[in-house]
Amino acid sequence: MSVLNVEQAGSGPVRQAGSVNEAPSGTKGRPVPERLVRVGFIPLVDMAILVAAAEQGFARREGLRLQLVKDVSWSNIRDRLAFRQFDVAHMLSPMPIASQLHLGSNPYPCFTPFALGRGGNAITLSVDLYREMQAAAGLDGSEDALTNGLALKKVVERRRESGRKPLVFAMTYPFSSHNYEFRFWLAAAGINPDADVTMTVVPPPLTVDAMTARAIDGFCVNAPWNMIAVEKGVGRMVATKADIWPSAPEKVLGVSPEWAEENPETLSRLVVALDAAARWCDDRQNHGDLADMMAHPAHVGVPSEMIRRLLSGRLTVDPNGRTRQVENYMTFHDRSANFPWLSQALWIYSQMVRWGQVAYGELGLARVRAAYRPEMYRQILGHTSASIPAGDSRIEGVETESFIDGRRFSPDDIPAYVAGFDIRKDLGSGVAH
Amino acid sequence: MRSESFQDLTRDTHTGQRPLRVAIIEENSIRAAILLDGLREAGILDVEVIDTMTNMLRRLSTVDPDVIIIGIENPSRDVLEQMFQVSKLVSRPVAMFVDRSDGSMIQAAVEAGVSAYVVDGLRKERVKPIVDMAVSRFNAFDRLQRELLEARSELASRKVIERAKGILMRTRQLSEQEAYGLLRQTAMNEKRKLVDIAQSVVTAASLLEK
Questions:
Q1: Which of B70, B77, B96 is best to mutate for the A interface (most A CBs within 10 A)?
Q2: Could you give the 3-state DSSP secondary structure of residue B188?
Q3: Is B72 on the interface with A (CB under 8 A)?
Q4: Which stretches of B76-162 are assigned E, i.e. beta strand?
Q5: A433 contacts in B (CB within 8 Å)?
Q6: CB contact residues (below 8 A), chain A span 162-181, against chain B
Q7: Helix (H, G, I), strand (E, B), or coil: what is residue B124?
Q8: Which residues of A touch B137 (CB under 8 A)?
Q9: What angle is formed at CA B145 by the lines to CA B26 and CA A172, rounded to 5 degrees?
Q10: Which of A78, A114, A263, A347 is deepest in the core (most CB within 10 A)?
Q11: What is the pLDDT along chain A (433 residues), one digit of tens a residue?
Q12: H or E element, residue A131
């Protein structure tokens, strides 16, 4: 296990009380001892805010020392939070919701007061499959995500007619934005993810290898794995998260409820530090420094230059060198990217219901509300930021934030929203998990 | 974590028939060998080592183990989770290896339903007690969940009966005791459960409402 203290060099392993130069917010002039916060993470570009908070002094300014601990799987992240090896963790946005709904193995009921930003996911298909799509639908490479999906549908139908095996698609965790986004894109193009193709789980660092070995025909994962597959010449990016739903929360800060109860002030300070770090990460002028930090083997461990390109949204989508500029491919703070919208939590719940992971009900709604805590965000950051939304919920999918299928999501009527999808699990047969 | 107290637990597997069967998912052959040795010394001979990710699911379901041991550094843990999702039949105790721990962590882990984990890394004399603990924790958690489920359904029945009583009191001007008596008498007459009669009252009332 790699336990790495990635605190900024020079600050020393142990800091004495009173050694903090800058006063933390709210306690001006009163020095406090540093408090250790143990943070679990998976090496992905979307943990940028955590790295910036630890390395750029934002945590130290709040009297905190962040110990970033790298892990290999989302189930580990969840269990080690339960083991109290972590106080907080980098988590997939559906994980706190799944945990509150008692879904999956060993559900440990964590919550999130702070989202770590939007974007970064993409869907990559094998080059062979993409060439088949080109042949079937005459793609020239400039098509949008939905057109790519429709071309895939043609291939899926042709394969079925000629008796070939269904395509195998991978995501990284059953309760992940990747799973719901991949399914959303497939279904928007008329492909039933449970009937027309095979969905499976492959951990992020193994996705490219699995595609090279032809074990899978496509995957949905966060940066940098899509671009690595393209650069290795095995993958073709066909859709990004921004194409499917730009507002979708990607990773969130998962908090252990016991720890939060015992350390309310530390949690507040942590959120303040992350808020400052998020603003810093959005500033293009800092992207060079951020990319260098992220490139370190203790963090993501891929070349700084690649991370920089990902941060700028300049994606190489095809091994033959075609690039695409995706606006807001990754957002760390702007457009309330850190606000834990209840409507987004409820959208995730709607997809869990849609795909038969959980039955819809009042109890479920109450549990989803316990997973995302906008009131905590307001309470902690209310005095610092002018950009806090007025409400905790909103209609999702309006104007520039629209879903790929063009439908809007009203959190007040989830059953109607789910019923409106042509492709979904039969609701009557909804299984518990 | 003292090993003596767990010694006899492996006999009490969910199968209760055959000797305990263990699957080890470990790509590192040295670690796998330590585990294998530890299990052998503890008298567990039915062990299958799965050393690659490919076909892990198929191999696991063929092996049908009573306990799964997986290294915490193995990214395939998430794949295992997915398998538990897809087929509830293969939900099994999972023992994992964690580097350090203390009493409160054990508590938290058990409360969270995690079957077992290890302190001080991997040593072969630790393997058997871990397996014992995985099995006992899993069984305890399983029982707890069942009890919770039963408690929940009882609560739901009580709510339905309360609502039915309320409807009868309102529509037939009965006292609470009379309403309950009527429900119970009807249940006895029709040889059905009280909660079923109450549910019919509630359903009928909702149909008659505008």
A1: B77
A2: helix
A3: yes
A4: 94-97, 116-118
A5: 85
A6: 172-174
A7: helix
A8: none
A9: 40
A10: A78
A11: 333 333 333 333 333 333 334 444 544 555 567 899 999 999 999 999 999 999 999 999 999 999 999 988 898 898 888 878 899 999 999 999 999 998 887 778 999 999 999 989 999 999 999 999 999 999 999 999 999 999 999 999 999 999 999 999 999 899 999 999 999 999 999 999 999 999 988 888 889 988 998 989 999 999 999 999 999 999 999 999 999 999 999 999 999 999 999 999 999 999 999 999 999 999 999 999 999 999 999 999 999 999 999 999 999 999 999 999 998 899 999 999 999 999 999 999 999 999 999 999 999 999 999 999 999 999 999 887 667 898 999 999 998 899 999 999 999 999 999 999 999 987 544 443 3
A12: helix A127-137
Asked if B60 reaches chain A (Cβ–Cβ under 8 Å), the answer is no
Q: Collapse the DSSP code of B171 into the 3-class scheme (helix H, G, I; strand E, B; otherwise coil) and give the result.
A: helix
Alpha helices in A189-337 (DSSP H): 204-212, 225-231, 241-244, 257-262, 264-282, 287-295, 304-312
B25 touches A: beta carbon within 8 Å: no
Question: Distance (Å, rounded) from C-alpha B137 to C-alpha B94?
Answer: 10
* Chain B residues near residue A1 by CB distance under 8 angstroms: 72-73, 98-99
Phi, psi of A276 (to 5 degrees): -65, -40
Residue B83 C-alpha, separation from nearest chain A C-alpha, in angstroms: 9
Collapsing DSSP states into helix, strand and coil, what is residue A391?
Answer: coil
Burial of A276 (0-12, 13-18, 19+ CB in 10 A): buried
Among the listed residues A249, A261, A228, the one whose alpha carbon sits nearest the alpha carbon of residue A109: A261
Cβ atoms of A169 and A127 closer than 8 Å: no
CA–CA separation, A406 vs B141, rounded Å? 44
What is the count of residue pairs from A and B with beta carbons less than 8 Å apart? 89
Any chain A CB within 8 A of the CB of B17? no
Cβ distance A83 to B105 less than 8 Å, yes or no, reads yes
Mutate which of A42, A67, A75, A355 to disrupt the B interface (most B C-beta within 10 Å)? A75
In this complex, which of B81, B99, B100 lies closest to A105 when CB atoms are compared? Answer: B81
Which residues in chain A (240-259) have CB-CB distances under 8 A to chain B?
258
Residue of B nearest to A201 (CA): B79
Residue A425 phi/psi, 5° resolution? -70, 150
Sign of the torsion angle spanned by Cα atoms A182, A187, A190, A195: positive
Q: Which of A67, A79, A103, A168 to mutate to test the interface with B (most CBs of B within 10 A)?
A: A79
Task: State the Cα–Cα distance between residues A201 and A192, nearest whole angstrom.
Answer: 17
Element (H, E) at B47: strand B46-50
Helix A74-82 and helix B103-111, axial crossing angle in degrees, nearest 10: 120
User: Looking only at Cα atoms, what is the longest distance across chain A?
Assistant: 75
- Crossing angle of helices B176-190 and B124-172, in 10° steps, is 110
DSSP bridge pairs for A237: A124
| Residue of B54, B58, B60, B81 to mutate for A, most A C-beta atoms under 10 A | B81
Which residues are registered as beta bridge partners of A3? Answer: A69
Model pLDDT for residues A115-165, shown as the tens digit of each residue: 999 989 999 999 999 999 999 999 999 999 999 999 999 999 999 999 999
Chain A residues in contact with B104 by the CB 8 A cut-off are: 84
